[in-house]
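Researcher: I'd like a structural prediction for the single chain below. Treat it as a standalone chain; there are no partners to consider.
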Amino acid sequence: MKKVKKGHYLIACIGTLVLGSFVGWYGRVWYASTLPSKLVEIRENSGAYNLINPLLLVDSNRQAPDLDWMKKTISDSINSNKDAALSVSVYFRDLNAGKWTGVNEDGIYDPSSMMKVAVMMGYLKKADSDPSILTKNLDYKYMLDSGQNYQPEHPLSNGPHTVAEIIQSMIIGSDNTAMEVLYNNDRDAFVNVLKELNIPPPATIDDLDFISPKSYSAIFRTLYSSTYLSRTLSEKALELLTLPEFKNGLVAGVPKDIVVAHKFGEHTTLINGAYDSRQLHDCGIIYYPGNPYLLCVMTKGQDFDKEASVIAGISKDVYNAEVLYNPLKK
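Model: Treating it as a single chain, here is the predicted structure.
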């Protein structure tokens, strides 16, 4: 029987809520796939309005042929480290041109701590209309998660803290206690984010591999375009995402002066109490001068350090390819 690593039981709880919130999702996807020119529209579908339905994303369901050079770069980078991970999936998007490419970009994984971005967005969405939400105090008592490989370096002190402070700890230190406090205080806020961004739920509450690099990219794309949150709060969210303590993935592959807004996730799978595999992911926006791009890398293997090296290597190769194709502006 598959067991979930301590600190990730929340995702199992989330599964039940999310499954119930996605009635009609497949119908909307089917309809979108029939639109002319292969364009897929994702609208808020929140039911909060009578006469409007805000557009969140417009996407093509086909990779851009003129990004074949990048697809080859990614494939070559994966192949050069094929013994370091069991599976690797990558999604790349030119945020100015709106074109994308990838390798196994629909492969599914356990997002784990990457869902903390959606938790943050759920609170910020409510703060758009009620800013006092961020100043509300919640009780925080740090619980060490012995199963977490990358521990927060500076967890909060025990006691009451504002929602804003707890969000900061959750994002910067990937603090599992902070996520549990926020999620337990308002579960619907998180679930609504996934529903409105059309991120499909897990097939069952026992199978936590349910998200792909391509589907997860919707979270960062809506923050970058400010189509889900206000401009002020989208900027605030991305500012926090430039500060995470984890720097072994995407950040390790680019020069130190390049800004990266990102979130990593880790997951360890146990089967019948025995260690089986590890997953490590890192997704975000690399602010390449004049041509920012989104890069999402998800891996599954046996060794976190090797998987981090794979992610850093892909990040480096993608960045160097950008330098060759879109020379830095002096």
